[in-house]
């Protein structure tokens, strides 16, 4: 066959292929529809829609973290009235398992969010947590309460943890730190609400209907918050990209700033929840306070936590994150040791306010530093998840260890081991933050105001 005949044949084939690609009615295209890949639309910075998402996420956090902060009221009630045969350490496992699962499942659910299932995560999490609360109202034994309030609530809360943070974080650039601070303020706000509900209803309605009232309140807030979060939620951009991310980055194991960050958070969160869980019981058993008076102490701590978070967020925008973070961690530990000298209701309230104000920033500040700990965006998600997993272990074991130290001294020294434990581990975590600060200045070559 002549060469020019081959070339003519190729030209004819190319024309047919081009015609096929151009023709919208071609049978090949009708049989195999192709959706072109388009990059995510740019997200507006703030606006009414974004602040509505902040409001919705605030309500979600008031339930999932607020119920955690209110566990101190349950701790004292279970220990002194409802489950008197169980030790304080065993009862503390109920709260810490819920907290640990909240964080750990939140990490594991990251790939679900990446694949676009954020709506399902919110709905299943909200309905599941509410159902667990109604089941809790029927419980009379330790293992039943551990299963519902500890395991079930923790699992379903874990599904709610990531969507709220991601939706808010994606919606802001300039005011992201303030938006995140407002969102996380839902935690102590919810803690105040649930503690007040417990305080006002437990004597009048009993345990079952007190918990059911909380469940109805929870259901109502979710009915408001989910539409605020999901209505027109097209601003996810590349967060719900449909691409599942890896959950482990082995290179982090060789990175000193990563280990310093993780160890600091581990020790800080080992002691962080101890005062919130045991203050109520301490007031009743050691100072002779009534149940109402002891719960007022918890409310004071949670209210001060709101102020502390907002003040720290503003301060961090002026002087950097590390200085407020170090100050908050070490001061919180010092106040826990000062707790040893508390001998009156007024001094206990002062301690609660100081600890609440200085410990509050320990929640919103760490994520603001992590972009400096891990400046590589390709492994940012994996390393943040690994660091949070380490923190979840601390949240799980801290309060039970402190509870196991109760009563070692007897009499006035019953809480001495608990107070020293919570204070020393937080101070050690704060010292580790100083090491992190120096590592970031040396290895990341950042400015002093970080």
Automatic annotation (TrEMBL):
The chain crosses the membrane at residues 50-71, 91-110, 117-136, 142-168, 180-202, 214-237, 258-281, 319-342, 348-374, 386-406, 418-440. Residues 1-37 are annotated as: Disordered. Residues 1-12 have a biased composition (Basic and acidic residues). One of its GO terms (cellular component) is membrane. The keyword Transmembrane applies. InterPro entries: MFS, MFS_trans_sf, Proton-linked_MCT. Pfam families: MFS_1. Residues 20-29 have a biased composition (Polar residues). PANTHER family: MAJOR FACILITATOR SUPERFAMILY (MFS) PROFILE DOMAIN-CONTAINING PROTEIN-RELATED, MONOCARBOXYLATE TRANSPORTER. This is Major facilitator superfamily (MFS) profile domain-containing protein. It comes from Friedmanniomyces endolithicus.
